[in-house]
Structures are given as C-alpha cells and as structure tokens.
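Dear colleagues,

As part of the handover before I leave the project, I'm documenting each prediction I ran so the next person doesn't have to rerun anything. This entry is a single chain, and its sequence is reproduced below.
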Amino acid sequence: MFSLTEPLEDSIIIRGQKVAVDFSFDTVLLWYQLLEDDSILSNDKIEIAFDNFVEESFSPPLSLEEKVDVIDIISQQIKETPYGKTINAVASIQEDCTSVSEKYFSYTQDAEAIYASFLFDYGIDLDLERGKLHYDKFKALLAGLSEKSYFKRILSIRQASHAEYEGEALTNLLEAQEYYALESEKSVDNLDNQMGDIFSMLKAQAEG
C-alpha cells in the first residue's frame, strides 16, 4: 500500500531471505492479463508470474507449492487499498460516484483510455514508464485522475443510473453504455477473485 513515510514495497521474504520483487506497474498488469487468459493452465500462470516478479534463482529450485505461496503474498500486496477491504466499498455506498471501482474497469479493455488519461492529466507516457513506475504509484495516480480524463468519463458512463435520465438523454446514455460496455470477466474485481480461486485450488492439490 502507498505510504508517504515508508519506502514502497520492493521485496518479500522467501526461504528466510529478503528477495527483490519487480512491482513495476507493467509487471503487475501482466499478472492480471495472465488471469484473463483461459488458454493457460493455472500451474503455468503461477510459473510465468513467478518468473516475471522474481529474478532471483534458488538452489534447490522452488517447488510449485512454494511459488504459489510467493505469488499469493505478492497478490495480497497488490490488492491492498487504504479505503475499505476493496475499492468496491466506495461504490456500494454511493452508486453514482465516479471513484475507481474495480468492478467498472479492466486494465486490458481500458488500456487505451488509461494511457490517454495519464498523458492528459499528468503528462506521463506510460509506455516510457515500463519497468520503472511502481504499481502503488500507478494505482494512486489512476485513482486521482480528473473527471475530465477519458478514463473517468468512461467510468461515469458505466456507473450512470438510468433513473436519472429520460427521453433523448436516456437514449444517448444507453448507446454510450453499450459502446463502452465492460466484459465482466475482465473487470479487475473479477480477476482479484480469480486470484483467490487459483491459490485455493493449487494449495488443495498440493495438500492432497
């Protein structure tokens, strides 16, 4: 989780030793992308994710069970948020809010809007920040995007209540919501849930 007084997370403990972890935003988004890909087996997702996050080599090599534990720890750090257990807590209180609710966006489907919004609001070219910008910083900047940004305007459309519109305005809203419709299985909220499912399944297999 982002802190103004503590350094950003850049390591975890593996086999009793402190090991560097790549928490750059693009590495984290690759993990979310892996979760979306149904053509890759869960075991392989863990192996790929581990190699992306951790460069350290181990002797003897880590078992799949150990790698599952490592990715589980990393994922818990990734999902931490300062407001409630999940970002969705905000939306459950105020349905028409334009906060960054994880059930209303996808890192892959909304990649273009996120890129354009960072450039528009902050002058940050995310393509040049790969391997450098920490995910916690990325997440804080994403949440702080202005209501004028492309990304926040899309969220506003997706979250808009039909009850507040009528006539031509309602027709326009429905057309916009259809155009910007989110594939629910790609939402960050859904993928966070998938993380837990994968870890539970693989740990159960290891114990069996």
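The first helix runs from residue 25 to 36. The longest strand covers residues 11-14.

All the best with the project,
I.
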